[in-house]
Structure formats: structure tokens, C-alpha cells
Amino acid sequence: MDEKVSTKKRPILKIIEKGLQLWLRSKCEAVNDISLELNGSTTELLRGRLESIKVIAEEIIFNRLPIENIKLESKDLNIRFNIFNSNERLVLKESFEVKGTVSFRGSELNKILLNGPWSWLGDWLAKELMDSIKLNEFKLEDESLLLEVITENQTEKISASFSISAKKGRLFFKRNGQENEVYLPMDQSIIISDVILNGGLIYITGKSIVKT
Description:
- The chain is of the alpha+beta class.
- The chain has helices spanning 11-26, 42-46, 106-114, 119-130; strands at residues 4-5, 30-41, 49-62, 65-81, 90-92, 96-105, 134-141, 144-150, 157-167, 170-175, 181-183, 190-198, 201-210.
- The protein contains four helices and 13 strands.
- Strand 10 and strand 11 (181-183) form a beta hairpin.
- The radius of gyration is 21 Å and the shape is elongated.
């Protein structure tokens, strides 16, 4: 029976860990801190299989989206070593499923929803949730989302609170005191299972397929 190994026991896992860190950082504009926990057997590693990996990262920017914290886990990764390329020593050969939790800070979301490449999403929230043309403030409170919009004639500001829930793999918004719900359009490969608002943060739990 193959012994389960960790980065403290086998140099090969240190190489894999370094390769995965480089691969993850290459997919992001910024990563403040990242740690990996790898598991596998000697035989499977030599065959290019990694049993599981856990990733914890803080203060990430991915696709210009600021992420506070990431805790992810994936199993049965198919990997290949590239000994001739020090910048890409390890290659992920196949797409794989990732499960975990991602958190976002409300104040950071407010900045990108009002200006920049994600302002289209702020406009979508204003239109679909409050029938307005311009979002003025996005604020996460305990157990609710507060939106403030500007009316079409730009003479008045209107605010309302919303609950956010996970249903059928999607995020749903419901204005407090009303029954209608609006779901957030997302990539079909992302399945949401839970969402929590607490302390100015939103924690989203789910799974997705990562394409290499």
C-alpha cells in the first residue's frame, strides 16, 4: 500500500506545490497570501495523479474582481511535469471540479460596481431590483443587502433592503416585504449551494468546473 505523503515528507510534493502556486498566481492579477495542502501516494504521483488539494488564499484580484478570502478543495487532478520549463514546471492536463467558499467585502464590491469594468453589474442590480438606471451605493449589512439608486431625473435617491439566498444553484434577491425574486445570471458551470451575509462580508459556497 502506498504511503500518503505531504510536502514535509516528499520533495516531489514541494515541486508540485510550487508549480500549482505559480499556476494559480498566473490566473490572478494579485494574490496577497496563498497556502496549499496536497495529498497523494508515491505511485499515483509518478503516474501524474494528485489525490486532493486544498487551497486557502487571501486578498485576491481575479478578472479585476477583489476577493477577500478563498477556501477551495479539489480531488483527482491529472498533472504533468515539464522539466524543461522552469516557469511552467507543472501543467494541469484536464478540467477539474472545485468545491469551497469564496468571500467578498461589501466596501470593495461597492467600488467596482459603481465604477470600472464591473459597473455593468451595478447597473443591472439597479435596473432589475429597483427599476432604476444608476446604482449609487451597494452595502452589505448583517443578513441583508442595502441598495441605493438614483432616479432617472437624478433628483432623488431611493434605498431598499434585500435578502440573498441560494436556490437551484443560483443566487436570488428578494426585496424585503415583497414576494418577487430575481436571480443573478451566472456561468452555468458555477453551482451555488449556500450564501451568508455577516460583518460586511458575503460568503458564497458552491462548486465549479475549472478549465485548463
